[in-house]
Design goal:
Elements lengths: L1 E2 L9 E5 L3 H12 L3 E5 L11 E3 L6 E3 L5 E2 L3 H9 L6 E4 L1 E5 L5 E5 L11 H5 L6 H16 L11 H7 L4 H16 L8 H13 L7 E4 L3 H15 L3 E3 L4 E7 L2 E6 L4 E3 L2 E4 L3 H8 L14 H7 L2 E11 L8 E4 L6 E3 L4 H4 L6 E8 L9 H15 L8 E14 L19 E3 L12 H18 L16 H7 L6
Parallel strand pairs: 2-3, 2-15, 3-11, 8-17, 15-21
Antiparallel strand pairs: 1-11, 4-5, 6-10, 7-10, 8-9, 12-13, 13-14, 16-19, 16-20, 17-18, 18-19
Helix pairs in contact: 1-8, 1-13, 2-13, 4-6
Length: 487
């Protein structure tokens, strides 16, 4: 399918392969600078992993997996503002934690306090933790913020480090594990300490608005697949969906992109914004050597990057029972349950109680089987929401992406490639590239802008950068995060 642009493009031709957030971000940045941009996506809709599927009963769009950004995601929020989609999201400073004993903690930050003091009301409101455990969590955050990047050990995971500094086992299980696994999409026993520090410093400590939850009001398919796509088309971007790229060749006249139909597209620059395995198959010979093994091949590099699975369990009941828009279930198989605002669009008379349960790092959960997983989740929902016991389950669906996010294991940042390849006309984008961020919507958008900067530099249009800075840190947060590391 070809979507015709609404305005003529100019001389420099850029082809972007991949219509996820990385590719869409690159298209937005390059079209703003007057380049002729063609975006190729193999699926029927753009959006990549931030996509939706059509519910066969209601006909409405349902997100394959609930996505949540944070206030610290400056490039993502800037793209939403540029495209006029910022009102499709709402901010929430409140998180609801439900402990194993059913204790419900409604925790909110206080924006009138300077960062990081704005976190104290939220942390002290964790009623499922003892006073000692809450104090330990605060101390653990300070210890993590004090660690300088140069002192972070590649060999130590976050779970091991927390235990080594004396964090109580229950504080790790009931706070650190759900927070880190939700933020990073990987088990706390595998997460790199540097990634955990970034969550604490940039996601919580630095700015009083950094930890705000930014939650979509509409389905991702409507926001990205329709809204963002239409906006790009209006800016002159050629968006072609249901198109497969079979090969990329580079010669003295520039890149040539071969499509599955036999068509060949010429370009001055190419941005490869696809998952890493697909990128290796397209431009593996152009990737830089494996950093830890200087003589290593592109295949070596690809083999050292791994993904972490995320499972979303979609449930349609005949009546609503959730009394909160979202909640963290601590110490359960279910990690986060959502009643999204767009649920009314997918509800019908037969199933008006749609909700979604999200399980990060779900590799162990999947081993118990789909039917058993469903039974366990229903049991947990009925335990914490007794009204769920009287609601009839009309339909359900379990969606697992085995490589939903890049696994941020120790040392992974040393092997994440930059946007630069061996050919100056070919650039990489994707949340798996070296952005300084974990595998998030912010990381994807930032990677697209980094690649766009590379294209502009190649075309002699290098300045200014298309990126926006992080949120400014408060003076107190700067003093804490900049303090000399503890031994």
């Amino acid at each position: 399918m070809i979507h015709a642009p609404h305005q003529p493009a100019i001389e420099k031709r850029v082809v972007i392969i991949g219509g996820g957030l990385a590719g869409l971000s690159a298209a937005a940045a390059l079209s703003a600078r007057g380049l002729q941009v063609t975006l190729l996506e193999m699926r029927r809709r753009v959006g990549g992993r931030a996509a939706s599927f059509e519910d066969p009963l209601s006909g409405g769009l349902v997100d394959a997996c609930q996505h949540v950004a944070m206030g610290c995601c400056t490039n993502f929020l800037d793209l939403m503002k540029q495209s006029g989609l910022e009102n499709d999201f709402y901010r929430d400073r409140t998180m609801v934690f439900i402990g194993p004993n059913g204790v419900r903690s409604i925790c909110s930050t206080q924006p009138w306090l300077p960062a990081p003091l704005h976190l104290l009301p939220m942390l002290w409101g964790l009623g499922h933790l003892s006073m000692f455990q809450r104090a330990a969590v605060v101390w653990g955050m300070l210890r993590l913020a004090w660690l300088r990047p140069s002192r972070l050990s590649d060999a130590k995971t976050t779970g091991k480090w927390l235990a080594s500094i004396g964090q109580p086992a229950e504080a790790i299980r009931l706070f650190w594990q759900p927070v880190m696994e939700s933020a990073l999409g990987e088990s706390i026993d595998l997460v790199d300490l540097a990634a955990a520090r970034k969550v604490v410093v940039d996601g919580f400590f630095g700015n009083r608005h950094a930890s705000d939850l930014v939650i979509p009001k509409k389905s991702l398919g409507e926001i990205f697949g329709v809204g963002l796509c239409d906006w790009l088309i209006g800016r002159g971007v050629h968006v072609r969906t249901s198109v497969t790229v079979s090969k990329i060749e580079c010669n003295e006249t520039g890149p040539k992109i071969s499509l599955g139909t036999g068509e060949i597209i010429s370009a001055d620059s190419v941005v490869v914004a696809v998952p890493w395995k697909r990128a290796v198959s397209l431009v593996g010979d152009l990737l830089p050597p494996f950093p830890l093994l200087p003589q290593g091949s592109a295949a070596d590099q690809e083999a050292c990057l791994s993904g972490s699975p995320i499972t979303a369990v979609h449930l349609w009941f005949d009546r609503p029972f959730l009394d909160v828009p979202h909640a963290v279930l601590v110490g359960q198989v279910s990690q986060w349950v959502f009643r999204p605002e767009y649920a009314s669009e997918v509800d019908s008379k037969q199933h008006s109680g749609y909700c979604q349960v999200v399980i990060s790092a779900s590799r162990n959960v999947l081993a118990i089987g789909r039917e058993q997983l469903l039974e366990k989740i229903l049991e947990e929902l009925q335990t914490f929401w007794p009204k769920a016991a009287s609601a009839n389950l009309v339909d359900w669906r379990i969606v697992t992406d085995p490589t939903a996010v890049l696994s941020v294991r120790p040392g992974v940042d040393r092997i994440r490639p930059t946007s630069v390849t061996k050919n100056s006309a070919v650039h990489l984008a994707g949340d798996w590239t070296a952005t300084g961020w974990p595998s998030t919507m912010e990381g994807a958008v930032l990677s697209g802008r980094i690649a766009a900067d590379g294209v502009l530099a190649q075309c002699g249009e290098g300045a200014p950068t298309t990126r926006v800075p992080d949120l400014p840190r408060s003076l107190l947060a700067t003093c804490i995060a900049g303090r000399r590391a503890l031994n």
